[in-house]
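For reference, the entry.
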Amino acid sequence: MNSPSASASAAPRCARRSPGAVLRSLGRLALETAVPVMTGHDFRRMREANRDFERAVAANDTGAALDADDRFHAVPIAAADNPVLSRIVERLHPQIHRILHRKFSTLLAGRNTIEHHDELIEVCAEGDARSAAELSGRHCSELGGHVNQLFDTDQFAEAATDRGTGRRLAD
């Protein structure tokens, strides 16, 4: 039988993993649907959002990094033109944001995300929907594992602040 402490630690991990797993699948679906219809304008918007993300990471501005990341991922979601997909992603957003806010508050994995975004744009521009979906799924899994490791090793124990606003970041 599980001890109370084992159950307590398993619940937060499950709560963190569940929305990420669903969002990973939805992201793959969005890319598989969007890539064949994406335009040069879409890729320019993604590149611009990624440059903004890079500047935010360099400035240690968690809020701006999340905003830029949202704009980046909104492009294929919009291009997929699937209202059900958009609605579900929108409903998951608050949960994902809480997790990402903690991840980006340490700026760990920021460089990896910038490089992933660049690679994803190139694969999308080549029109390879399947590879784009696989690349996105792998990256999401890697980040999920990274976030779980940080929680498991209590590396989020120190108070973090958003340099853009100066406020303490929420758990």
